[in-house]
Each structure stands twice: as structure tokens, then as C-alpha cells.
């Protein structure tokens, strides 16, 4: 019998990896800037929402119920921040920020891929143990909570914000509002809603 929580996490990991692979291929093939921006933004939004939801739903259960739960949660948060910093760098490169525009896109992409895979390995080990502790019925409930949380999570990286506890819950609410405002200003594509794009100069590989 398949565990619904593990199935949900595996599906998210596959989708994130596929999105990032597609970005790398698009850059390598020198596709139009607009296309690369849309694909990269889709990955970044998905990654940020997934990390935020995992912190909100999975980490509290792991901290309470797993051996060495606190240590493992700290390890996850440390790597989550690494990924968020890498996503922030990619976003600066994507939108032409002066301190990142000279970075080769291949370097930025490789950094994203490394940090994502490191996080997924830590996350999968955590979720496997949480799923084993809960069983399929409770795991299915947690999987539904995770999906609901992800849909309403921030769309941008916030590595310096709290990731667990009541301060993290408050921070997420505030960042969702702020991110929504800036997404509209920048014309980002969020949740399938196509907004006006203003593309910068073409990417350098």
C-alpha cells in the first residue's frame, strides 16, 4: 500500500527537479528571454511555496515525534535557507540586478540544482520517518494539509525570516501579502495567471 504522504512528497520532488532541468535546457538552447523567465519563475515560486509548507506542516510533527527531531529540524532549516539564498540569487540574475547580472547563468543554475538536491535528500529522510510513525491514514491527512499550505505560501525566498513556531506563522501571513504585491508589480506569473511581462536583455550562458 502506497503511503499518501510519501507519494505527495515524491511528486513534489519530481516536479521541482523537472522544472529546474527544463530551465537549464532552455538556457542551454538559448530560448527567448520571456520563456526562460516564465520557466524560472515557475520553479522559484514552486520551490518557495514547497519549503514554506514543509516548514509549517512537516517540521512540527518531526520535531515532536522523531528521535533527534530537534536536531534534524535544525538541519532541514539550515539547508532550506541555503536553497532560499540560491533562489534569491537566481531571481536577482533573472531580473537584472546589478550585483548578479555578471554571474554566468550556468553557475546560478548549478547552484540551484545542488542546493535543491541537498534539501530533497534531507526532506525525504524526514518524511519517510514521519510517515512510518503516523501510518497511511494520518499521513494522508498531513499530505492534504501540506497541499493546502503550499497553495497559500509565500512566492519569494525569505531566508532570514523565522521558519518554525508562531513567529514563522505570522511571518508567512505578512510575506504572502507583500509577495503578492511585488508579484503584481513585476508581472510575475503566479498560479497560472498570465500577467504582463517586461523582459530584460537576453541571458548569457
Descriptive account of the structure:
- The protein has 205 residues and is mostly helical.
- The protein has a single domain, classed as Up-down Bundle (Four Helix Bundle (Hemerythrin (Met), subunit A)), CATH 1.20.120.
- The protein has helices at 4-28, 33-65, 69-94, 105-134, 136-151, 165-186.
- It is globular, with a radius of gyration of 17 Å.
- The termini are far apart.
- The relative contact order is 0.18.
- The model is unreliable at 192-205 (pLDDT under 50).
- CATH domain topology: Four Helix Bundle (Hemerythrin (Met), subunit A)
Q: Provide the low-confidence segments as ranges.
A: 192-205
The sequence of SSEs as H and E is HHHHHH
- Strands, total number: 0
Q: Please, what is the oligomeric state?
A: single chain
Shape: globular
- What is the overall number of helices? 6
Q: Please indicate the count of domains.
A: 1
Give the termini separation: 45 Å
Q: Tell me the major beta sheet.
A: none
Helix content: over 70%
The value of Rg in angstroms is 17 Å
CATH architecture: Up-down Bundle
CATH class: Mainly Alpha
- Output the structural class: mainly alpha
Percent of sequence in beta strands: under 5%
Task: Summarize this entry quickly.
This protein is mostly helical and 205 residues long. The protein has six helices and no strands. It has helices spanning 4-28, 33-65, 69-94, 105-134, 136-151, 165-186.
